[in-house]
TrEMBL record, chain A:
Binds 1 thiamine pyrophosphate per subunit. Binds 1 Mg(2+) ion per subunit. Gene3D superfamilies: 3.40.50.970, TPP-binding domain. Residues 396-543 form the Thiamine pyrophosphate enzyme TPP-binding domain. The keyword Lipid metabolism does not apply. Its cofactor is thiamine diphosphate; Mg(2+). Pathway: Amino-acid biosynthesis; L-valine biosynthesis; L-valine from pyruvate: step 1/4; Amino-acid biosynthesis; L-isoleucine biosynthesis; L-isoleucine from 2-oxobutanoate: step 1/4. Its EC number is 2.2.1.6. Belongs to the TPP enzyme family. This is Acetolactate synthase. It comes from Sulfitobacter mediterraneus. Keywords: Amino-acid biosynthesis, Branched-chain amino acid biosynthesis, Magnesium, Metal-binding, Thiamine pyrophosphate, Transferase. The keyword Signal does not apply. It catalyses: 2 pyruvate + H(+) = (2S)-2-acetolactate + CO2. Residues 194-331 form the Thiamine pyrophosphate enzyme central domain.
UniProtKB/TrEMBL annotation, chain B:
One of its GO terms (molecular function) is acetolactate synthase activity. Belongs to the acetolactate synthase small subunit family. It comes from Sulfitobacter mediterraneus. It comes from the Bacteria. This is Acetolactate synthase small subunit. The keyword Transferase applies.
Length: 583, 186
């Protein structure tokens, strides 16, 4: 069935066909025909953001909390360039996003027209794929393909650039159909490889599961299979920042997050294991520390849907290319059919060793005196909200790492944080996207005051759509992580890492019509958090915390997992010249 | 060259072929990349090489299948075995790329390049240039009283050798197409 319609109508029709219910966007000259169509329909809700970067992060929040692609609609030129940070963020974290940009009419492309930018050129390296559509007849086909590419294989952001004359012209609409595109990534893993991994698991004395965002991206079924596998084998499991929630934090086999600010027991287990089973993670430099001494004695298996992830950083002994869900299903089948064997005696010994590492209690802290320690603030937030139907976003910096350490995630898709790109300003708009997708749930953005200010304009969006997002700002009046590195690496010369001229956050909230809460006394903290939770509407919570707290544990740059720093003692001079050039 | 076990149709190969070879030896590989013939596809491939810091020794591109909208890009690149494997995997994940073949490891292949040389000189130099061109089976495609333009086809090494010989004889300009390559047999 084909129908004639304008390009603009086609865009809205495609979105409806694709099951899109929410679009985050900002109008402008080159997308006016599309906005005219948006005006004349009721199927899709359009969320007017206050800045295009916010639109993309909101779509990322929507996508990560639902597993569905997030959709963005922005204009040409600055609308498109403002989307670049979000696109890069989504690329590095493998988040499915479809961004539609307006473009100057085809006959004006290349003339330096008003609000013209080479959008496909600019976004080529920061999208999984992008298209410039020059004929209306091709528009719906490209749009359906865009959704297919964004969501197939390793997910990622795509962009479709649509000149204004293509939006006005009439063409033939092609309805959604099973993709005939040559792009059909392989999802089933090689059975020989899977069997080899099972054989290694049967013999392993010191195994560890190292899981990542790939488990979350593979869908809730993958997390279920992972849980089954962990419980059945009794192997310890750690996860990257991106993978938190795939295995429950309350689970017995959970070691906590690994990596630069990961838990001592998790990093030591990675260093000391004899079989590392990487499931949907990519050996990011925040995880490996110095590559040469990364887990020196282990056999390494890697399950990843993207063949380029394998052997990119770390040499792999058992590579398995496939979707995590599909591979885990086969892995469990093979393992069961071979008699559910593990080297349980050795694994029990391994657990004794892990318990020893656990007893270091690397996250312990003392709340003393009249100043709130950030760890305490997050512990209280955890205690008072863990029973809620809760989604957590973060900005980027110390607060992000503390949130990963002190908050527990029981389910996938509940934790939205900018992992790969480390985008300050991500969390607040992301929380708006999450709240749109889950209007009845508790959505909290754990923020630092500096990150939060980067996209504070989105308060307008939160108010306009009555989104009760809770902005929990750990305010230390510093760029805490920058300050920490300056202390460790740059002789305590705190260059530009102060948050000068901060606003009064309570007044700021009130100026937007939201609620502001300030808390500086540990004794008041619980009541203040409860006040935030009980308020039906957006809240800015200004939590004044200790200004010079450093985030530990920490693997200093250029060091290995077993060279972690556990606390403030003796941090001077631990990073040598070679380490200090790393970021 | 290391014998990496890459079967034909490298983008859909078994993960067995991802067994690493972490040698430090720099290898030169010729890759044949079959791509969708669409605007920007060359920029995607080149952008991958520049963005990730890989080398391009030579690159040729032209449409090879008009009805199927396919172009063939032949890239000569160099790097350690790990880097070469990364390049192939990264090329394979570009959405417009249909197929990546590493002609260097997928059995025997033939490589050819076309080059044109402008050589100017008089007397003995001119005679010697013409004589060597004949030995190398280069054709004269333009001539004045003081210059020749030779056209030569062959493996890159042959063209290098011809260039070395022409240099003392008055070589003034060279244009080379870069390598086109095909696997031998069927």
């Amino acid at each position: 069935m084909t129908r004639q319609m304008t390009g603009a109508k086609m865009i809205v029709q495609t979105l409806i066909d694709q099951g899109v219910d929410t679009v985050f966007g900002y109008p402008g000259g080159a997308v006016l025909p599309i906005y005219d169509e948006v005006f004349q329909q009721n199927s899709i809700k359009h969320i007017l953001v206050r800045h295009e970067q916010g639109a993309v992060h909101a779509a990322e929040g929507y996508a990560r909390s639902t597993g569905k692609p997030g959709v963005v609609l922005v204009t040409s030129g600055p609308g498109a360039t403002n989307a670049v940070t979000g696109l890069t963020d989504a690329l590095l974290d493998s988040i499915p996003i479809v961004v539609l940009t307006g473009q100057v009419p085809t006959f004006m492309i290349g003339s330096d027209a008003f609000q013209e930018a080479d959008t496909v050129g600019i976004t080529r390296p920061c999208t999984k794929h992008n298209w410039l559509v020059k004929e209306t007849d091709q528009l719906s086909g490209v749009l359906h393909e865009a959704f297919h590419v964004a969501t197939s294989g390793r997910p990622g952001p795509v962009l479709v650039d649509i000149p204004k004359d293509v939006q006005f012209a009439t063409g033939t609409y092609t309805p959604k159909a099973p993709s005939t595109s040559h792009y059909q990534p392989k999802v089933k893993g090689d059975l020989e490889e899977i069997t080899e991994l099972v054989a290694a698991m049967e013999k392993a004395k010191r195994p560890v599961f190292y899981t990542g965002g790939g488990v979350i991206n593979s869908g809730p079924g993958a997390s279920q299979l992972l849980r089954e596998l962990v419980e059945a084998t009794g192997f310890p499991i750690t996860s990257t920042l991106m993978g938190l929630g795939a295995y429950p934090a309350s689970g017995e086999k959970w070691l906590g997050m690994l990596g630069m600010h990961g838990l001592y027991e998790a990093n030591m287990a990675m260093h000391g294991c004899d079989l590392m089973i990487n499931i949907g993670a990519r050996f990011d430099d925040r995880i490996t520390g110095v590559v040469d001494s990364f887990s020196p004695k282990s056999k390494k298996a890697h399950i990843d849907i993207d063949p380029s992830s394998i052997n990119k950083v770390i040499r792999i002994d058992i590579p398995i290319v496939g979707d995590v869900g599909h591979v885990l299903e086969d892995l469990l089948k093979v393992w069961k059919s071979r008699g559910r064997k593990t080297n349980s005696e050795a694994v029990a010994k391994w657990w004794q060793q892990i318990e020893e590492w656990r007893s270091v209690d690397c996250l312990k802290f003392k709340q003393e005196g009249k100043v709130i320690r950030p760890q305490y603030a997050l512990s209280r937030l955890e205690e008072l909200t863990k029973k809620h139907d809760r989604y957590i976003c973060t900005e980027v910096g110390q607060h992000q790492m503390w949130a990963a350490q002190y908050l527990g995630f029981e389910d996938p898709n509940r934790w939205m944080t900018s992992g790969g790109l480390g985008t300050m300003g991500y969390g607040f708009p992301a929380s708006i996207g999450v709240q749109m997708a889950h209007p009845e749930s508790l959505v909290i953005n754990v923020a630092g005051e500096a990150s939060w200010l980067m996209n504070m304009q989105e308060m307008g969006t939160a108010i306009q759509y009555n989104l009760p997002v809770k902005q929990f700002i750990l305010n230390n009046e510093r760029l805490g992580m920058v300050r920490q590195w300056q202390e460790l690496l740059h002789g305590e010369r705190y260059s530009q890492s102060w948050s000068e001229a901060l606003p009064d956050f309570v007044k700021l909230a009130e100026a937007f019509g939201a609620k502001g809460i300030i808390c500086s006394d540990p004794a008041d903290l619980d009541d203040a958090i409860m006040e935030m939770l009980n308020y039906d509407g957006p809240v800015i919570f200004d939590c004044l915390v200790e200004k010079h707290e450093n985030c530990f544990p920490m693997i200093p740059s250029g060091k290995a997992h077993n060279e972690m720093l556990l606390g403030d003692a003796q941090t001077q001079g631990v990073i040598d010249a070679k380490g200090s050039v790393l970021v | 060259m290391s014998a990496l076990k890459i079967k034909k149709g490298a983008t859909s190969h078994s993960a067995y072929n991802l067994r690493p070879n972490f040698s430090d030896v720099i290898e030169r590989h010729t890759l044949a990349v079959l791509v969708e013939n669409e605007p920007g596809v060359l920029a995607r491939v080149i952008g991958l090489f520049s963005g990730r810091g890989y080398n391009i020794d030579s690159l040729t591109v032209a449409e090879v299948d008009h009805t199927g909208h396919l172009s063939r890009i032949t890239i000569v690149t160099s790097g350690t075995p790990q880097v070469i494997e990364q390049i192939k995997a990264q090329l394979g994940r570009i959405v417009s790329v249909h197929d990546v073949h590493d002609l260097t490891v997928e059995g025997a292949s033939v490589e050819r390049e076309l080059a044109m040389f402008k050589v100017s000189g008089k007397g003995d130099h001119r005679v010697e240039a013409l004589r060597l061109a004949d030995i190398f089976r280069a054709n004269v495609v333009d001539s004045t009283l003081e210059s020749f333009v030779f056209e030569i086809t062959g493996a890159p090494e042959k063209i290098d050798a011809f260039a070395d010989l022409m240099r003392p004889l008055g070589l003034v300009e060279v244009a080379r197409t870069g390598v086109a390559a095909l696997s031998r047999g069927d």
